[in-house]
Write a structure and sequence with these properties.
Layout lengths: L1 H22 L28 E10 L7 E12 L7 E14 L4 E17 L2 E15 L30 E17 L4 E10 L19 E12 L3 E12 L2 E15 L6 E10 L3 E10 L2 E10 L4 H4 L2 E12 L5 H6 L4
Antiparallel strand pairs: 1-2, 1-14, 2-3, 3-4, 4-5, 5-6, 6-7, 7-8, 8-9, 9-10, 10-11, 11-12, 12-13, 13-14
Length: 341
């Protein structure tokens, strides 16, 4: 009996955390936020050197506590160049996100379509506006719910009612987001700067599991700046900062990277980079990046620095990313439209 009571006490914080996630939902987030661009701004759709880009992200968080997280994202975006549209181009993409948390398997799955329009302002300056529309499915496994009503005096009894009645264990909702991005790019010294902002969940969709109540998803503001500068022939340094604000939640992350180009010969490109990020009040995230030809692979690991490290043993969790960019040989007329690409 004492052992059972002890187990229930250990489970209580996990249940409270799961309920807090349900009542005040927060969007997914990545420490390698620059490698999941459409999750921080729809205006970053198509904003890369190349023609077609595939992106995959995976994050596992808090495996040492009862309420762990798993997040996966994947997507593809492409440019559509019109030779009759000078100094401008359209881009489009599709993105998929799925995250799951805790014993209740509280999950959120969304698929979004992104579109952007880029205008070349001058030789090195570009402005992009983007929009994102899509739908999402939110649900949980009610069969895994465990509450104190199921304690019969001697121990846990799964045959007793939880006392919780949900009209739905799964809901669907539509979503709308938009943003703008400014880019400065100098190809001569590999310098690139992005500054942007985006507003997600403009329509504040209702995600309640109860038919006659509302649980509106709070809007999320994303504000960021990233810079990459070439130092000499083979070295690059990078700086990144992002602030994301959603209802009572906020995330501010700052970081830096260093990269060395080991081979710059065409079709044999090879580069290696190291980085370190800090999420204010939460975690440090060292990272490593390997670029080979059209591929780029990233790995980082969150090390908790918040009071929650008592439960997580400082093991926030690993994060993986992979990017593949296809580039075709351009006709001179197409390249002149927007040399950013």
């Amino acid at each position: 009996m004492l052992k059972t009571l002890h187990s229930l006490k250990l489970l209580a914080p996990a249940l409270l955390l799961a309920l807090s996630i349900q009542l005040q939902a927060q969007d997914i987030h990545y420490s390698q936020f620059g490698r999941s661009p459409m999750n921080i701004n729809p205006a970053l759709t198509g904003l890369f050197k190349g023609d077609l880009r595939f992106i995959g992200n995976y994050r596992s968080q808090w495996n040492k506590v009862p309420v762990n997280y798993m997040t996966f994202s994947g997507g593809v975006d492409q440019k559509f160049i019109n030779t009759n549209l000078k100094n401008s181009l359209f881009s489009a993409g599709i993105y998929f996100n799925h995250d799951e948390a805790g014993d209740l398997e509280l999950s959120n799955t969304n698929v979004t379509l992104s579109g952007s329009f880029t205008r070349r302002l001058s030789t090195k300056h570009y402005l992009t506006a983007g929009i994102q529309v899509g739908g999402a499915q939110r649900g949980f496994n009610a069969g895994n719910l465990r509450v104190d009503n199921q304690y019969d005096g001697d121990g846990f009894n799964s045959g007793l009612s939880t006392g919780e009645i949900f009209d739905n264990s799964s809901v669907f909702y539509a979503d709308l987001s938009g943003g703008v991005n400014y880019r400065f790019q100098n190809f001569k010294n590999r310098t690139k700067i992005d500054i942007g902002t985006a507003l997600y969940h403009v329509n504040r969709p209702n995600r309640s599991f109860y038919a006659n109540s509302e649980n509106r998803l709070a809007q999320r503001w994303s504000v960021y700046g990233t810079a990459s500068m070439g130092i000499g022939e083979i070295f690059d340094i990078g700086l990144q900062v992002i602030g994301q604000f959603q209802g009572p939640h906020e995330e501010i992350l700052v970081g830096g990277t260093g990269k060395i180009h080991l081979n710059q010969e065409r079709d044999k490109e090879l580069a290696f980079g190291l980085g370190l990020s800090y999420r204010l009040g939460d975690a440090w995230a060292p990272s490593v990046v390997l670029d080979y030809r059209m591929w780029s692979f990233g790995f980082s690991y969150d090390i908790n620095s918040s009071p929650f490290n008592v439960a997580s043993y400082r093991r926030g969790g690993p994060e993986l990313s992979a990017v593949y960019i296809f580039s075709k040989v351009r006709a001179p007329k197409e390249f002149e439209i927007c040399p950013l690409f």
